[in-house]
Design a protein that fits this description.
The complex is a heterodimer of chains A (about 425) and B (about 300).
Chain A lengths: L1 E2 L6 H6 L13 E7 L4 H17 L3 E7 L2 H13 L5 E5 L5 H5 L7 H5 L14 E2 L2 E2 L2 E5 L2 E6 H7 L7 H13 L3 E3 L7 H15 L1 H8 L8 H16 L15 H5 L3 E7 L1 H8 L7 E4 L11 E3 L2 E6 L6 H12 L1 H8 L19 H12 L4 E3 L2 H4 L2 H16 L4 H15 L2
Parallel strand pairs in A: 2-3, 2-4, 9-10, 12-14
Antiparallel strand pairs in A: 1-3, 4-13, 5-6, 7-13, 8-10, 8-11
Helix pairs in contact in A: 8-9, 8-10, 8-17, 17-18
Chain B lengths: L1 H5 L7 H4 L1 H31 L2 E2 L7 E2 L3 H8 L1 H17 L2 H12 L6 H13 L2 H11 L6 H8 L14 H26 L3 H9 L4 H12 L1 H16 L2 H7 L11 H9 L7 H34 L1
Antiparallel strand pairs in B: 1-2
Classes of the chains: A alpha/beta (about 425), B mainly alpha (about 300).
């Protein structure tokens, strides 16, 4: 347990005005927050956020607990059912499902209706289940292809926009003795990113969502077509060898050393690539190329969230805190270059002046007309996601097993969505 | 003394008469209480939960034996079960290996204590460290194993990335500390070997394998029994090595029942308490075979000793 004292940071807090229904003086007692922002950068952001909010409300003390991000994925169940805190971190879309169904997240539709979260309309859908809202987002980030600009220049390649260009680029890269893509599938989810994109580009965003909702069979010919496109790359040898042994971080050196030229990843990889010694001149970003020209581009942009526990003791303070987090000023601050370095969820906030964040913002606001997905393991129900990603990894290693894999996934689908 | 003597003697109280029974019960009580609370009751709770469909959060639905029925057709369960069998069989290699090293080290040379402690060293390491060290050893490109293989002109192999090899790779890692454990058990056992019997055997012309088989090993029987027990238990709790080295992968080929149970019921994507409990029950039944054997063996030995 870690208590934030009421000292310091008052200056920043004073500049921040709230559009909250509750005025600052009314809040009293204790606001208990459990956060999963345990990596060094996010941790500092969260601690600052709690300290500022604490300083704004003299009668309120904010009690912040930061839990390891991976551990929180399993601990949240116990945390919410026994002695629940007021506010917790979690993820949008289907990942909320079990907690919403079990009545552990508070229904905050009224707060949305009351205008607490002005400027958040575009992300409201990701927090909606059964027609109600169960939390608010605080950050999101784009996915896409991060590549070695210097190697592309050396080989005379340009950012591909179609699948043919993509294949041609990849062939040129392979001919130069490098791999096209690095990837580490040991923890499976990275393969989920590839499937998301290939399926959204082959069959469109709506089909992808139907598959996530269990409305389409895995043995459907359209799904097979997605895998056939994927197989083109696999058969070329586009991916690094032995990727099933590496985590996503362990796959980074391949790109940093120039043995592989690109990485399909979330924007959080940029920080690691820069730390690995790549400059912004060597690094660039492009949107995953179109495959089927008839479908609109859909994108993955996972959203991280705050929720109020249904057993919250200090609901007023929780409401004020959520409104504070969603406000344009705070959104600009916490997603800025000194904060999370990601995209703000509030349309009135300003986007950080960073090459990759700017490109991502532009892509998501102008060229993601198909729709915005969360991610394989957030859009599909938990069990389907875990069985699915295991099948995807197997496919990447043994593409010949496809029929067997699809039948297994189909059997799982019929059981899970019944 | 004077005060006590002046009181009239009213014969032994109930407590005094029964203290041979009451005392052991009192001493056992805390242990029994917690054993019941944390071991016995949860076993029956698992039996019970395995009859429900339950995500661990909401309402549980009674579904009878459907979870067990699903186990029968679940290929991942089958793989996990077979892996458990592999672990049980191959882990037992630690016993002869440990005996071999113990016999080798059971001599008086200067600095033998240093050698003994070096052989014992892996057992002191945490399983997590052992797992990490071995996964680096197996790394497909930088790993020491492949460095040696390429030195001899052989093809490099990705042990932990190959679904056919990965389990054996993990078992080999597990054998390293387990062999050390068996070795230390045998070393202490060898100290207790009666030199007169060895002498008598030698007079009768026994040496080499015959000496080992007919004179030494029978005297090491208690050590062998303990080594067997700890090795079986070690094989059944192989969870941490698997979690560290492969996380159950590639594509679930290295799971054992305990890992599969964790994945289904408690992990990031696991919301099937009932199904996980059904796996736990199967694992418990397998363990029960060994536990039953151990208990019977101990009871039998004690009865023999009393005769």
């Amino acid at each position: 347990m870690r208590s934030i004292t009421k000292t310091g940071a008052a200056a920043l807090a004073a500049t921040t005005m709230l559009a909250s229904a509750v005025s600052a003086q009314d809040l009293s007692g204790e606001l208990r927050i459990i956060s999963d922002m345990s990596n060094p950068g996010p941790r500092a952001v969260m601690e600052q956020l709690a300290a500022d909010f604490d300083a704004m409300h003299p009668n309120l003390s904010v009690d912040l607990t930061i839990v390891d991000r991976e551990a929180w994925k399993t601990q949240i169940r116990n945390a919410l059912s026994a002695d629940p805190p007021d506010v917790v971190n979690w993820y949008a879309a289907n990942r909320m499902g079990p907690f919403v169904d079990a009545g552990l997240f508070m229904d905050i539709t009224d707060w949305w209706e009351a205008g607490d979260y002005e400027g958040l309309d575009s992300v409201r859908g990701a927090l909606t289940q059964d027609g109600r809202q169960w939390g608010i987002p605080y950050t999101y980030y784009q996915w896409g292809v991060y590549y070695r600009e210097d190697i592309f220049n050396e080989l005379g390649l340009s950012e591909p926009e179609t699948w043919e260009e993509e294949i041609a680029n990849c062939q040129a890269i392979l001919d130069s003795g490098r791999k096209c893509y690095t990837i580490g599938t040991r923890f499976l989810w990275t393969a989920g990113g590839w499937f998301d994109y290939l399926n959204m580009r082959t069959n469109g965003f709506d089909f992808h969502m139907q598959l996530a909702l269990g409305e389409v069979a895995w043995t459907d010919d359209r799904v097979r077509e997605t895998f056939a496109n994927w197989r083109q790359l696999i058969d070329m040898g586009a991916f690094i060898d032995d990727h099933q042994t590496y985590s996503w971080q362990e796959a980074l050196p391949f790109m940093i050393n120039g043995e592989a030229t690109a990485y399909l990843m979330g924007n959080f990889a940029v920080d690691q690539l820069r730390n690995g010694g790549l400059t912004d001149d060597q690094l660039d970003f492009y949107q995953f190329p179109a495959i089927n020209p008839d479908v609109e581009m859909g994108e993955d942009a996972p959203t991280d969230t705050f929720h109020v526990a249904s057993g919250a003791q200090n609901v007023d303070a929780a409401r004020a805190f959520l409104a504070y987090v969603a406000s344009p000023e705070v959104q600009t601050e916490i997603n800025g270059p000194d904060g999370l370095g990601q995209l703000p969820v509030n349309a009135n906030a300003s986007v950080a002046d960073d090459e990759f964040i700017q490109q991502g913002f532009e892509m998501l606001s102008e060229n993601a007309t198909g729709g915005i997905a969360q991610f394989f393991d957030r859009d599909f129900p938990a069990e389907m996601a875990s069985i699915g990603m295991e099948g995807l990894q197997e496919f990447m290693v043994f593409p010949d097993n496809l029929d067997d894999i699809l039948e297994r996934l189909e059997a799982a689908r019929q059981r899970i969505y019944q | 003394m004077a005060v006590a003597a002046s009181e009239t003697y009213a014969g032994p109280t109930w407590l005094q008469r029964n203290r041979m029974i009451v005392t052991p019960i009192l001493f056992l009580l805390p242990g029994l209480l917690f054993f019941g609370l944390y071991v016995i009751i949860p076993i029956f709770q698992s039996f019970n939960i395995s009859l429900y469909r339950w995500d661990g959060l909401g309402e549980a639905t009674y579904i009878g034996l459907a979870n067990y029925q699903e186990l029968l057709t679940d290929r991942n369960f089958e793989i996990s079960l077979w892996n458990n069998v592999r672990w049980l069989a191959l882990y037992l290699l630690a016993i002869p290996l440990g005996l071999g090293i113990a016999l080798f080290l059971n001599q008086t040379v200067t600095g033998i204590r240093v050698y003994k402690s070096m052989f014992f060293f892996p057992f002191v390491l945490s399983q997590v460290v052992v797992g990490l060290v071995f996964s680096w050893f197996y790394l497909p490109r930088e790993g020491l194993l492949n460095g040696v293989l390429t030195l001899f002109g052989m093809e490099p192999i990705n042990v932990l990335g190959d679904p056919d090899l990965a389990t054996y790779g993990i078992i080999a890692a597990g054998l390293w500390p387990q062999t050390a454990y068996c070795m230390i058990l045998y070393l202490t056992g060898l100290n207790a070997v009666d030199p007169e019997q060895v002498e008598a055997g030698r007079l009768d012309g026994a040496k080499g394998w015959k000496m080992l088989w007919y004179v030494i090993l029978p005297q090491l029987k208690p050590a062998t029994f303990i080594a067997f027990v700890v090795t079986i238990i070690g094989a059944l709790r192989s969870f941490d090595l698997i979690s560290i080295m492969t996380n159950g992968g590639p594509f679930g080929s290295t799971r054992v029942l305990s890992f599969y149970m964790f994945e289904k019921a408690l992990s990031e994507f696991g919301f099937r308490m009932g199904y996980g409990s059904a796996i736990a029950v199967v694992l418990f039944l397998i363990m029960l075979v060994f536990i039953g054997y151990f208990l019977w063996q101990m009871w039998y030995d004690e009865r023999e000793a009393r005769r």
